[in-house]
Amino acid sequence: MTKYKAPLVKAFLEPDSETFSYLVYDHPGGQAVVIDPVLDFDYAAGRTRTASAQQLLDFVGKQRLTVPWILETHAHADHLSAAPFMRQRLGGKVAIGKQITEVQAIFRDVFELEPGFLPDGGQFDHLFADGDRFTVGELQIRVMHTPGHTPADLTYVINEQAAFVGDTLFMPDLGTARCDFPGGSASRLYHSIQRLLALPEATDLYVCHDYPKPGREHRHRTSVAEQRQHNIHVHDGIDEAGFVRMRQARDATLGMPRLILPAIQINIRAGQLPPADEQGRVFLKIPINQL
Ligand SMILES: [Fe+2]
User: Fold this and answer.
1) How far is 146 from 258, CA to CA, in rounded Å?
2) Exposure b/e, 79-91, CB count within 10 A at least 16 = b
3) 54 C-alpha to center of ligand 1: Å?
4) Which class in CATH covers the domain with range 8-255?
5) How many angstroms does the Cα of residue 14 sit away from the middle of ligand 1?
6) 177 C-alpha to center of ligand 1: Å?
7) For ligand 1, a single-atom ion, which residues have Cβ within 5 Å?
8) pTM value?
9) Residue 280 C-alpha to ligand 1 middle, in angstroms?
10) Residue 58: helix, strand or coil by DSSP?
11) Residues facing 162 on adjacent strands
12) pLDDT for 195-254, tens place per residue?
């Protein structure tokens, strides 16, 4: 048992990318963090919308919450971040892992970004490192660096009872996140997951995505105990070599996420759009034959 009370968790499913965003708070009228907010994007029209993010804002308003942090688990490849919109409405700081600089360096070259784009993480308000701790009202938040899916993935452990694991683990029947994006590593993911599975068995794990097969509802919460028993990729007894073999074979069959090109360009800028031209127009790039 920990000395902390259980955090309150409200999950929001964005159905197009099957992403879960979270509001985690200590009590109504208290303090909260936003984790992985989504900006809706109509790719065909090149149009952004804030309907999903607005649902979080409505909840914040109803619960009268103060939100000092907007937390990213990683630079997502399948949806755009609504962090700047959330910060504009709520205040607070936008944070991600400090290894985002590696991701920025890789994709600055892929996208041939403007000289003013520096891969120094300065686009974010704060960069977290493994082991960092911070307090939000009655929430004690501990940062774990859990790379593998990308070099910069973080897990946020709140009150030693709820871990927001980003794209490391999925629900037990789906297994684990892919590791084949530039900078990804199945071996590193295996070790990150072992650290997560070493948390107390009753720890709730909150995932960033769920892709249920027909007949099962979307789920966003699992536990260390459930994962150790039932996760098809990393249940107890699976060693690193076996995991890496499985992960690499599976990744070789996967196509790129539909929104990876727009998503990465925006998310490595902390969710900001690229600089506008003299007429205020904004453009994204599509590198040919590079990914
Ligand atoms: Fe991801």
Assistant:
1) 24
2) bbbbbbbbbebbe
3) 22
4) alpha beta
5) 14
6) 8
7) 76, 167
8) 0.97
9) 30
10) helix
11) 158, 204
12) 999 999 999 999 999 999 999 999 999 999 999 999 999 999 999 999 999 999 999 999
